[in-house]
Design a protein that fits this description.
Helix 1 packs antiparallel against helix 8. The protein is mainly α. Strands 1-2 form a two-stranded antiparallel ribbon.
Amino acid sequence: MSISKTSDEDSIEPELEPQPNSHKLPRNVVALSLVSLFNDASSEIIYPFLPFFITSTLGATVTFVGLIEGIAESTSSLLKLPAGWYSDRLKKRKAIVVIGYGIASLIRPLLALTTAVWQVLGLRFIDRIGKGLRSAPRDAMIADSTPSQLRGLAYGFHRAMDHAGAIVGSLLGAGLAFLFQNDYRKVFWCAAIPALIALLILIFAVRETKRKEDKNGQTSQAPPISFNLSSFTGKFKIFLAILILFTLSNSSDAFLLLRAQQCGISIVALPLLWALLHVSKSLSSVIGGGLSDRWGRKKIIIAGWLIYAAIYFGFAFATNETQIWVLFAVYGTYFGLTEGVEKALVADLVMADQRGTAFGLYNFVIGITALPASLLLGLVWQNFGAETALMSSAVVSLISAALLAKAL
């Protein structure tokens, strides 16, 4: 296993064969990105309408909507760590990824058949099992397939395609709802088509990538799941600790939509505002990933966190619709500078046979921290006002950026 350092990170490089074209993204990266595009399009056809379907068609309360989503997302977060670890131990990742996407492809359209809210809960629970199984092994596959000098671009491209899928799905959902006169069940059935396309691309276009230690006949025992992180590098542990602090400032974007309404954005315009955010995310993800390959991961992540702080300060003091539109457009660049780049940094900081576990840990700490982050901001918002809550998040993100600059 060869070890090398970039200018500002302690990184452990992947064991990959030389690439014939150092500026071309590998086949697996492109294929997995297309899988994410079609799968996210399928998801976004359904989920913007799901709360209305649950409350208006099935007669459930808003509280039950929150219960369904809370259980679903918690399930996904808890499964990412063991799924990633098992892909390291198995030394094969594609089968787990196929199972994860396959579950979603088969289960998601069945929402059209539901007649009771407990059925929706069950299907969302199973759907998120699929996401929990596929996420960490898929992210590790991207690292396994990509040379280090293209890793940021690879993750940035994948995130851009994922966000593009969200844009396409939202527009398709709106068109289908208009075509079927808000018959949500017919809309849900249509979501099966892009989900099936995603699964077929995954099965036939994505290849299992053997790491170099496998090709050389070397064997290594995958580390057991360990919450003391004893088998990982010191800088990976530090990064996770700082990430936990930052995520405490990173509450649900639902609060920003609420702030938008307070500043005069109509409910009818909120989907357009949301689409603008995804356009910004998609366009900036490739740029952010590519810049991290040139300038280093840490610098780009810090820039993203500083933008996040500035945007939250902006939301705290915003007073009109124009300011909200500008803030949402710029807010997307935070995601472009951080989502893919953070994953590239994770891959840099761990050994090849630990990547599945590492991505599982990365997703796990974000998942378990996101809930208290939203609860804390909601409590501050309720008791001290929106301005104080948003400024508090900005301050925490600034502290996180300063710690990251000092520690890595």
